[in-house]
Amino acid sequence: MSDNENVKKKKPELLIPAGSPDTFKVAVDYGADAVYIGGDAFGLRAKAKNFSRDEMAAAIAYAHGRNVKVHVTANILAHNGDIAAAETYFKELKELGPDALIIADPGMFMLAGKICPEIERHVSTQANNTNYETFRFWYEQGAKRAVCARELSLKEIKEIREKIPEDMEVEAFVHGAMCISYSGRCLLSSYFTGRDANRGACTHPCRWRYAVMEETRPGEYLPIEENERGTFIFNSKDLCMAEHIPELVDAGIDSFKIEGRMKTALYIAVAARTYRRAIDVYDKEGEEGFKALLPWIRNELSGCNNRRYTTGFYYGRPDHESQIYDESTYVNDAVFLGIIEEVKDGLVRISQKNKFSCGESIEVMKKDGSDIKAAAVSMYDGDMNSIDSCPHPGQTVWIGLEGDKLPEPGDVIRIKRGTAAE
Hints:
The chain is an alpha/beta fold. The chain is about 30% helix and about 20% strand.
């Protein structure tokens, strides 16, 4: 069993999501120790762009060249018809050489152990890992790590850490969307649309509007604290534990996991560099240094798309304050403009993601946590024709920035504008 005093002092891994090659590079560049991704099949984010075989090979090479690990999701709850294809997939992964596989289904877990035993197997939160006996079970089957169910408190996680083998790792979600169903095992999507959330095709019905209808009054809809926008009774606030790094470390969590394989590069950059700096400052400077950093943490995460924040189950069962009944709007004071692809002759080139205009003030996000504030003093299209704004998503734009320092390729740029609708 583990020596909890030693575990508490261990610096945790920062595990960042990536749903595409572009966001993967952002995750690596902005501070991830490890990045988790999905292939073309067998992950629970079918609507993410995900990675082809060649893209996955390139991503693994990029990460390993920077001492960053890659975890690949294969966490669907498989049916009979999935098994033959899963065998082929695991054989491909054996050749590609990621650092870990994230698996929920026992059959898939055993299959991966037979085909690619040299790759670590991590047990997904979908497996409902809620107690230390479950962790011990998976360890005896060959698991290196298990992801805590989101329904666990810090007290419960600490007890799990104390009662499992020292070389078994504990991973837990610390930031991102919360599923209304137990550890993400939701049936609403399958019931309403025929798209199975447990096989990667979730349509997120927990974010839809709802009303109640009494059995003997068909067609008469009764409001549930309803306003003019509807009632969102399943809509949880987003998890955020950035202000509680000391408590997470004390609980013995080995890996801090961010949710969001379908999120933008801006979200990934903000989350990665905020948690990176928070972890590093606490590791080097302790409680006092971390407390001094809290205002910066709060300010940074206000620029990260969210449905308002909660600490989830970490300090006990959430109450009504953890739900959002009156809207399904993201809170965000920043808009993603693009990733800088080239710097040339005092201009920067991007493929723009949202409209902005010449003369607006832009922020360039640096990997070290600092920002460059600069005005867009000139703007040109891909043919170097002068333009006043860029209204077409994806268009190539060259921007002349007025500021003290020039940005670098790979920097994320944003603009502060206030709340953005979902």
